[in-house]
Write a structure and sequence with these properties.
The chain is built from 5 helices and 9 strands; from the N terminus they run ααααββββαβββββ. By secondary structure, the chain is α+β, with helices and mostly antiparallel strands. Strands 1-2-9-5 form a 4-stranded antiparallel beta sheet. It has a 3-stranded mixed beta sheet with strand order 6-7-8. A hairpin with a 2-residue loop joins strand 1 (about 180-185) and strand 2 (about 190-195). Helix 2 (about 30-80) packs across helix 5 (about 215-225). The chain is elongated, with a radius of gyration of 30 Å. The termini are far apart.
Length: about 290
């Protein structure tokens, strides 16, 4: 008898007689907490993205400042600017020496960066040797102009082959999408330009340009940190992405693929950067030119 009662107790323990508990939904308070958490996560992601973009802008501005400092240091040490340094001085200091007759654009020491001819802006001669000299002098990171297709031929001032891996010849920017810095002179002034260069031709040094430059918002933020924030005045100027020193795209109102907002032309000093993010402000339609200082 006791064994029978014991077995019944064990069975009841294994299969308790209880009513099924109905499923319960979230309360309004619980839903509110979940929504707040989701909002915080999304907000954190957006803030993080903005912080990344801001840090890229600061880093690229820092590059320009670093290059200017490197040029001034080079000038003080070697009595000339990189690229344009007299060939004899380059050889005496153990720097890269072009062996082309030192006509304009091949280490003539006239203070201007020229691509193998008066006022030439192509990647040839001094405009390529500029980065090679700064690399040789350990004033910038990398070894530009020293290897693979980017190797500069002393007798021509041109790269050994068509350069499509641009980091062999030019320094990349810190912004996204990445562009590259080139140098040249116009009307007696030396400039850097940051744009979407994607090839240097070994035949004549001509640049091929891509379609993803800086956004107008990025360009404005760099301009305002280094200069006056206006695209056609001061030491920083807005440029297009079709070629070296090309005029920026423009429109009277904010529009797609428009770098500047203007009613007249792309060089009016009253022009402004197109910062309307919904209609062109985030399009990669700008390049920037920076004057040496």
């Amino acid at each position: 008898m006791l064994e029978l009662l014991d077995s019944k107790r064990r069975a009841a323990f294994r299969f308790p007689l209880c009513a099924a508990t109905p499923m319960q939904g979230f309360t309004l308070i619980e839903l509110s907490i979940v929504l707040v958490i989701i909002g915080l996560i999304v907000g954190g992601i957006l803030v993080g993205q903005d912080m990344i973009k801001a840090s890229e802008i600061r880093a690229t501005v820092g590059q320009i400042e670093k290059y200017n400092s490197a040029v001034n240091t080079f000038r003080s040490k070697y009595n000339g600017i990189p690229g344009d340094l007299l060939q004899a001085n380059a050889a005496a200091f153990g720097l890269f020496q072009m062996t082309v007759s030192p006509a304009l654009g091949f280490g003539d020491g006239n203070g201007l960066l020229e691509g193998g001819a008066t006022g030439a802006t192509v990647g040839m001669g001094e405009t390529l040797a500029f980065w090679r000299h700064l690399s040789d002098a350990n004033l910038i990171d990398g070894s530009l102009g020293t290897g693979s297709n980017g190797l500069i031929v002393a007798g021509t001032g041109l790269p050994t082959g068509d350069v499509s891996v641009m980091g062999q010849s030019l320094p990349p920017s810190k912004t996204t999408p990445a562009g590259y810095f080139i140098v040249y002179s116009v009307t007696g002034i030396n400039y850097y330009q940051l744009g979407p260069v994607n090839q240097i031709a070994s035949a004549d040094g001509s640049y091929s340009w891509g379609t993803s430059g800086l956004t107008p918002v990025q360009a404005y933020n760099m301009d305002v940190k280094l200069d006056d924030g206006m695209p056609n005045s001061g030491s920083v100027r807005a440029k297009g992405i079709a070629a070296v020193n090309a005029n920026a795209s423009f429109n009277a109102t904010s529009a797609s693929s428009t770098c500047l907002m203007t009613g007249a032309n792309a060089t009016d000093t009253a022009d402004t950067y197109n910062r309307v993010t919904a209609t062109g402000g985030n399009d990669t339609s700008c390049s920037l030119r920076f004057r040496f200082n």
